[in-house]
Description:
By secondary structure, the protein is mostly helical. It is built from 6 helices and 2 strands, in the order H-E-H-H-E-H-H-H.
Amino acid sequence: MDWKECCSRRIAKDVKPDIGMISSLTKSSKNKSESESRLEMSNTTAGSKLSLAYDSLRELLEALSLKSGYKICNHECYTAFLKEVMKESYKADEFNEIRKVRNAVNYYGKEISVEETN
């Protein structure tokens, strides 16, 4: 899905930057990142570490999009936001790959190895 489709389907909407929400998301992201780093990596914790790291990153993207004047209502449109609005194509592709793996873990019960998580 590209940015134009995200906007036309109202998945991404123009908003005024919300400083309080941006601050809250940034703090929550930091907490998840710290929680992830406190977990020792093992076959048992690999999926949890990936999910926490992804959630931390997604919250930072939400804060960035809000700061840029957009409310994005689906994870796929963060890829389009990074690629087309922020002009960060490589980061967008990386985020999208992590999103797919995280979805497989969270929604389809995929087991993830320590190596893949790293």
